[in-house]
What we know:
The chain has helices at 20-36, 45-48, 55-72, 89-98, 103-107, 110-118, 125-140, 153-170, 215-223, 240-253, 257-263, 269-295, 298-327; strands spanning 7-12, 38-43, 79-83, 145-147, 178-180. It is mostly helical. The protein is globular.
Amino acid sequence: MIMERKIMYSAVQPSGNLTIGNYTGSIRNWVTMQEEYDCFYAIANMHAITVKQDPALLRKRTLELAAWYLACGLDPEKCVLYVQSQVPQHAELTWVLNSITYVGEMQRMTQFKDKSQKHADNINMGLMDYPVLMAADILLYMADYVPVGVDQKQHVEIARDIALRFNNRYSETFRVPEPIILKTGSKIMSLQEPTKKMSKSDENPNACVFLADDKDTVIRKFKRAVTDSDNKIAFSEDKPGISNLLGIYAAFTGKTVEEAEKAFAGTGYGDFKVAVGETVADVLAPIQAEQARILADKEYIGGILKAGAERAYKAARKTLSKVYRKVGFYTGD
Length: 333
Ligand code: AQP
């Protein structure tokens, strides 16, 4: 009996330089998943413009992100790598799904509330519609699973609600996706405000460790990480700074947080921070070298993205035709 492979969808926005949170919460996990599933991995540039972007920088970051994907180990022979805006069905399906999504649901989304506060001068329709576009992304490819960090769980849940609602109204059409959230590395917090998640668009560069940071910068940022003053390395709710560093160490070594706690029992905060910084920098160094090598060959990246967009388009077109028929759009045949 031939078992059908499960389908996986995920994406990252080219909205800033990638952080170690994007890596451990997302891209790194995609690499193992491409062996087992049919994976679609997008560069979510349509999501990115829901906050102001410099157009030239957005284009540049799109290629850089593609190079990071490849450098982290995504293999275009094993998965579909593409740029979201090159597959028009994302926008088209969003419009249909908008018509079965309620404004109140979108206003209650945590990311919408956070980003509305952060970008109070630009609370645009796209920002509020972000989860519907994300639902369209996922549902277009009939994804079974969506690997995400904790921050995106709510959006996968709303995608499930929208899929079920459509299926109830128009008959069985979409597969209902499930989020995959790994135990370690799925919620890396800011180094400066450890109760807030690390975000690539954070204005304080010391709050984030970027994938592109060199060893000295990584160590300097960890040395400056906000902790507490009791000098005890333990994972607990009242020690968000130290807990975050333990979580990062665990995510970069494959150890559990308990093992990390044990390894540093009795160590002072200063030495602990340097050790975490060195561990992270050593993992990043070979990925950075590979990313630079790949980025130098724009033609190679362009070829991969073109082929990826064609494959994604084929799958997306199939779903959208079905949707258009179900909702009663005139198709001319
Ligand atoms: N701090 C984090 N820890 C673990 N996972 C994280 N992710 C993001 N931050 C962390 C995961 O990375 C994937 C891509 O995220 P995205 O670019 O689509 O949007 P985001 O979640 O809004 O990420 P950022 O870094 O915070 O971007 P900006 O600042 O532009 O909004 C997702 O799977 C996410 O869970």
